[in-house]
Write a structure and sequence with these properties.
mainly beta; 26 strands; disordered C terminus; 381 residues
Length: 381
């Protein structure tokens, strides 16, 4: 590879370089191209990026039915990096971001007759279509996208309940390694979800190898018993996590499950007093801690809505339509942020997660339909 540097030194240098530079270096020689496209190097480069780089925040804002996405630095100025232009698919009347993980963005493609999905890496401008899956039209669905570290695989979970009686439909799991959907054989918990009027987002957060969403049982007196349901991508098993006592009996749409940091979850309670609870230790009910209680904002007379969390631990709030702010838990100081292009009070803002550039998908070559730019390639073994 070089007459001057050992290969191990070159690898140490390359793993620290941005994706854009590595893509250019592929044209140097067949050897360099082979090295950069090697799955082990892609994994090494990803781990280096996760350890040394601060992820961007992926912001979504919509106005009059139009979806806009932008990357923002997680710095003091909350500066915009760039607008994200989603791929245009002929088969889709509308495309939206479901979630992101390790540089991949899971897209949901809406069509008048069916739903489809694509996994996209905007850093290398490469995406794959997932095999089409027949889904019941009478189901309330939730989708979870994430990474199974045990098998080095990216997976998409679809869980749903029948809108008529709240019973579970057959859960399905997509594996990128196997490029197929399969039925989940694990027995679902005896809790339903999503059929109460006003149920929240179809996307569920991915945290520490698992996805989580709210589940509940209806009590004989007409009340509710809430829990957090989870699905571990490596073990491919469901789990149940108990909530703090004060949240168990609430109306389910009052609760939102969120990612907190890299390895924990939080629950936001809506209402006249908006509460934020964080789970400090997995498996221990007593580790739930109420970290924040919000009332109506003095200027807007609106209760701030929790959007997500920053790398420094601050909470991101929507203090009014189209207006964001960071809140420091320790001193309760609020710092406003301006999202470029968001100027009207009708605009809705959401945080679609964090994003870090990676080379993932660069080595995909196992019969998937892969598209790069405007070209379509059918790749076989």
């Amino acid at each position: 590879m070089s007459d001057y540097l050992p290969e191990v030194v070159i690898l140490e240098i390359l793993k620290r370089l941005p994706v854009k530079s590595l893509l250019r270096f592929r044209s140097i020689s067949w050897t360099w191209n082979s090295l950069i496209c090697d799955p082990s190097f892609i994994s090494t480069h990803l781990q280096s990026s996760l350890s040394n780089n601060t992820p961007f925040l992926l912001i979504h804002y919509s106005e009059t039915g139009k979806d806009n996405y932008s990357f923002h630095y997680d710095n003091d100025g909350f500066d915009e990096l760039k607008q994200l232009q989603l791929p245009v698919f002929d088969c889709s009347s509308r495309t939206a971001v479901l979630d992101s993980c390790n540089g991949l963005i899971c897209l949901i493609l809406f069509h008048c007759e069916f739903l489809n999905f694509a996994i996209w890496n905007p850093s290398i401008q490469k995406y794959i279509f997932l095999p089409q899956l027949s889904i019941s039209e009478d189901a309330e669905l939730k989708f979870g996208f994430g990474f199974a570290s045990r098998t080095n695989d990216y997976k998409l979970l679809i869980v749903g309940v029948d809108e008529k009686d709240g019973s579970w439909i057959q859960p399905y799991l997509f594996s990128l390694n196997e490029n197929c959907w399969k039925r989940v054989t694990a027995i679902p918990p005896t809790y339903t979800f999503g059929v109460v009027t006003g149920a929240i987002d179809i996307k569920v957060p991915f945290v520490n190898g698992a996805v989580y969403w709210l589940g509940y049982q209806t009590r004989n007196n007409g009340g509710f018993s809430n829990v957090i349901l989870g699905f571990d991508f490596s073990a491919e098993e469901f789990m149940v996590i108990n909530l703090p006592e004060s949240l168990i009996g609430l109306w389910p749409p009052c609760l939102t499950i969120m990612k907190y940091g890299e390895s924990s979850i939080a629950v936001c309670k809506s209402g006249e007093l908006r509460e934020l609870w964080v789970k400090k230790e997995y498996g221990v009910v007593e580790s739930w801690t109420k970290v924040l209680a919000l009332t109506r904002h003095i200027q807007s007379k609106r209760i701030p809505y929790v959007l997500g969390f920053r790398k420094n631990g601050e909470v991101l709030l929507e203090v009014d339509r189209g207006k964001m702010a960071s809140l420091d838990f320790n001193c309760l100081k609020m710092e406003p942020h301006v999202v470029e292009g968001v100027e009207v009070a009708r605009t809705l803002i959401t945080i679609k997660g964090s994003y870090i550039e990676s080379l993932v998908l660069l080595d995909v070559h196992s019969g998937s339909l892969v598209r790069t730019g405007k070209y379509i390639h059918l790749l076989f073994h």
